[in-house]
Specification:
heterodimer, A: 269 residues, mainly alpha, MetI-like fold, 13 helices, globular, B: 267 residues
């Protein structure tokens, strides 16, 4: 039996060692070394003393925050309505389907839609508002990112709402609660776990959508993800790239710990 | 009153769904236009599809991308299933927790971090960038999702089945192939499916580790889209949409058959 267990464990632990632990150590190593391989704090000193880096970090978080909030506002009602539909499996499939279309193709579609003589500007000029520059603005970036993330927010919330014991809702109704009271006092608190995993599923990828900032956001370095891509693949300064990477990992951990703590808190209550 | 509410919620859902599909159908619509861009529909033409089918480079990339997805998801499914069994068999709770935490690291890491750290890793090992490095990366980032798909099946399994089989004289291999495997097969299949779509969909990680020689569909679309609008990409996206629909249909059939098989047991 023991031999058997090793047989299953060996390839898997090899994967963990090579592709989970080793890359993490290497990126941290690169972040703390200079161009001659010596240990140094200078990359981090440079990062935290340079206002461009700090502004970019803030920007990155602000955009990810906006994307997450807008996605949540659109997705929560959607998940709620979906959980009351007939043929839920079918509608669910309809919502998941766009996620299987390649992300780049969807981004590419928006290049056409937001173009100067594209769909949106046609629509705007129909109402007499002249053609506007939409492509290559921050608005376009946030819009497209939200568009891409919506299904990933709907799904966990929908699952959480479906997990709520219908007896609780019936009991509240019997006791005279209005529809909005049921929503605010029962469904919303009980679907919090879904909202939290939705936030995690949207916020973290939003920090690294560098292809969108390149294609839609007008090729400016505005997020941490874009900066990492630039340092690794364009300027080839891997040490600085790794430093930004380590900062991103730490910030990400903070986000995850705070969203998880809330859940814990809720359980205690 | 209730009816009114119903209408509003339907309307909301219709608008959101419309917005979700608009870009996709916008692309497909202009793939039939004889113009040069996505702003004015000239007249109907198949020309872009003809160009697409004569574009040997793009066709080769398309086939390579599918092969890559198949190969990487097969290997990832194998290692991931083993991993799930190993995690399930772990005796101490602490060890299990550590394995699960390590498993989830790649699930929650942003793509750029995975791509960048793999790039450092491959360079440190002296592995040249190309098909090999992309394949290894795709296997690596697909393994955790397979584990997460298989693990619940193992947890749900009735342990006494294994004990009974062993009492009746089944050897290790029998227990694995006749009891364990059939129970977790649905998990393995959905793990494989997820791994396949992860691989097909990936752009960021591939972009980091691909080097110059090898390109996947995502990377190719990215580099073409950066140069501007090319209606050949529209034709490609129409084909991919049909491909995805076919995949969904197959998946739907599998699910239906599975439920059909399960149903008599319940009744």
């Amino acid at each position: 039996m023991k031999k058997n267990r090793l047989f299953f464990l060996l390839p898997y632990s090899l994967w963990i060692l090579l592709f989970v632990i080793a890359p993490m150590i290497l990126i941290a190593f690169d972040a703390f070394t200079g161009s001659h391989g010596e240990f140094t704090w200078s990359n981090f000193v440079q990062f935290f003393s340079d206002t461009t880096f700090l502004r970019m970090t803030l920007n990155s978080f602000w955009y990810a925050f906006l994307i997450t909030v807008i996605t949540l506002l659109i997705s929560y009602p959607m998940a709620y309505i979906l959980s009351h539909m007939k043929n839920q499996q079918f509608w669910l499939l309809l919502i998941i389907l766009p996620t299987w279309i390649n992300l780049l193709l969807k981004a590419y579609a928006f290049i056409g839609i937001f173009a100067r003589d594209g769909l949106v500007n046609h629509f705007l000029s129909f109402f007499g508002i002249g053609p506007a520059n939409i492509l290559f603005t921050d608005f376009a970036f946030i819009f497209v990112a939200t568009y891409i993330e919506i299904p990933f927010m709907i799904l966990p919330i929908y699952n959480a709402i479906c997990d709520i014991d219908p007896a609780l809702i019936n009991a509240a109704r019997d006791l005279g609660a209005s529809k909005w009271q049921v929503l605010g006092k029962i469904i919303w608190p009980l679907s919090r776990s879904g909202v939290e995993s939705g936030i995690q599923a949207v916020f973290i990828p939003s920090l690294s959508l560098f292809m969108l900032t390149r294609l839609i956001g007008g090729n400016r370095v505005i997020t941490l993800g874009t900066a990492i891509e630039e340092y690794f693949l364009t300027t080839m300064n891997w040490h600085m790239g790794s430093t930004i990477g380590v900062v991103l990992i730490v910030l990400m951990l903070i986000v995850m710990l705070t969203t998880n703590r809330k859940r814990h808190h809720q359980e205690v209550r | 009153m209730k009816k009114k509410h119903f209408v509003w919620s339907r309307l909301y859902m219709a608008i959101v769904l419309f917005m979700m599909y608009l870009p996709i159908f916008y692309l497909i619509f202009y793939s039939f236009s004889s113009g040069k861009n996505m702003s004015r529909f000239r007249h109907f033409t198949w020309a872009h599809y003809v160009t697409l089918f004569h574009d040997d480079r793009l066709l080769a990339i398309f086939i390579e991308t599918i092969m890559l997805a198949l190969l990487s998801s097969l290997v990832a499914t194998l290692i991931g299933t083993f991993g799930a069994i190993a995690i399930d068999q772990a005796k101490s709770k602490k060890f299990k927790g550590i394995l699960l935490a390590l498993n989830n690291i790649l699930m929650v890491s942003p793509d750029v971090i995975i791509g960048a750290s793999f790039l450092i890793f491959f360079t440190a090992l002296g592995i040249s960038l190309g098909f090999g490095s992309v394949l290894l990366s795709h296997i690596a980032f697909s393994i955790p999702v397979v584990v997460l798909m298989v693990l619940p099946r193992l947890k749900e399994m009735d342990r006494s089945l294994i004990d009974a089989a062993q009492d009746l004289g089944a050897n290790q291999f029998d227990v694995f192939s006749k009891i364990l495997l059939p129970v977790i097969t649905p998990g393995i299949l959905s793990g494989f499916f997820m791994a396949f779509t992860y691989s097909l969909d990936d752009f960021a990680v591939t972009f980091f580790v691909t080097g110059n020689g090898f390109s996947t569909l995502s990377v190719e679309i990215y580099s073409r889209a950066r140069q501007g609008i090319d209606l050949e990409i529209n034709a490609l996206s129409a084909l991919m949409f049909v491909f995805v629909l076919a995949l969904v249909f197959v998946y739907y059939l599998i699910e239906k058959r599975r439920r059909f098989k399960k149903a008599p047991k319940r009744g």
